[in-house]
Each structure stands twice: as structure tokens, then as C-alpha cells.
Amino acid sequence: MTAIEATDLRYAYPDGTLAVDGVDVSIERGERVALLGPNGAGKSTLLELLGGLVDPDSGGVRYFGETTDADTVRSRLSVLTQNPADYLFNPTVREDLAYGPAQLDCGRAEVERRVERVADRLDLKGLLSKPPFRLSGGEQRRAALASALTVEPDVLLLDEPVSNVDAANRETILGLLDELAADGVTLVVSTPDTELVPHVADRVVLLGDTGTIAARDTARNILTDIDLLADCDLRPPQVVRLFEGRTADVPLTVDRAAKRLDTDGSDTVE
To answer: Does pTM top 0.85 for this prediction?
Structure first.
């Protein structure tokens, strides 16, 4: 089943700059998809169009094969933009996490169940009584993600979810995204970071620098096509560069490369 289907999307900023130019995107239920491209490629704008946060100048988006009105499926669709402050506006973290399900008219007991469940998964239980502005940057990222998850969406769209966070917060967020994918949640992640892509996506929609799609393929095929990435002002993951030409089955992450070397020792990187 198709979760999101966008057809011929076009959007220009108020100054006339074209951000998205005739983009078609289809995302199936349960997929993990990365919107990959350099800064200025229109990734964030495309994510907001797919999430129904802004209206296209032309073209349209259909959700779950049912409707073009994103507001009617808000209980199934969550969007997390780059700025955590957009989601943290209540006096405490607990109230921010409760806000979404309360707007869906969930009962008090159900709201509390969702808050406790998500807070536990993102290690936020000790922060629930704190004002959001007193959290660190990484804690704010986790709290904002938690607020998007308490509506228990079928589809989660994330704009650079681990930018400017430390290693511990990154590991927590990526671990949860793995759990969500295993639970069948559809994930769409916008990023300029080729190192992140193997951790969050199986398929890539690659944007060029003019708001158009340069390619769409598996994460492996995109990330190992060094010339294609260079044409889009991107570099492949470092481990891909290290193993280029050494093996047909290039590992995409450092962990996978280490496991390969531990298993057979057949690839020697000097």
C-alpha cells in the first residue's frame, strides 16, 4: 500500500526562487526512504510538502490512497522539522508530549500511557518535569521526537533528526528509528549527510541543486556511485571511499566494515 504519493510538485519561495520543480515521489507503507541532497537542494521544502505543512504551487500529494488533505490524517502522520522549539512550547516536557494525543481527544489514561511509553523509549523520564528551554540541544531533539511519536503515527517524516547532537543522543535516536521501522512505521528522512543514510534508509531519492530529482535507487546503489554523488556536490561515506575498488560488496558503514574484517580478514585497508 502506498503511504504517500506526490505528483508533479512545484513550489517557489516568495522571492520567486524555485525550491521544488516537478517532483514525483511515491513512498510505500513500511519503507525507509532518505531525501538526500546538498544544502539548498530543496530537501526540507519537499519534506514539508510531503507532510502537508505547506501547500504546493502546483501538483498534489495523496495520503494512504485516500485523501489529499493532510489534516484529515494527522493522527497517522507526524512531521519533525529541524527546529525542536517548533514542538516544545509548553511549560514542561510532559505537557509537550501530552499535547498531540490530547488534541486527538485521547482520554487522560491513554495520554499518560503514550507519554510514559515514549519517554521510556527515548530516556526522557527524568526530564518530564523540566521546562524544555532548560534541556540541552540533544535532549531537546529527543523531546521533540517524542512529541511527534505520542500520536503513534503510521508515517514519520524527519528533517535532519541527528544534526548537532552528541554521540550518545545520536545513538539513542537512531536506535529508536530502528525500532520504529521494525514495528512497521514508514520513515522519510531528509539529510545532506551520506554517512547517515545507511542507518536510516533502504532507498534514496537523490536531489540535485535545482529542486529536481537526480536519481532514485537503493541506498547501496546511490552511495557507491561516486560520480553521481559528485555531480550533486556530495561525497560518499568515508568507508565507501576506503573500500572503493577493493571489493564488489562495499560496506556502507564502519560497523559493517569492521564485521567484514573480523569475519574473513580478506579486505585490508592501509
So the answer is: yes
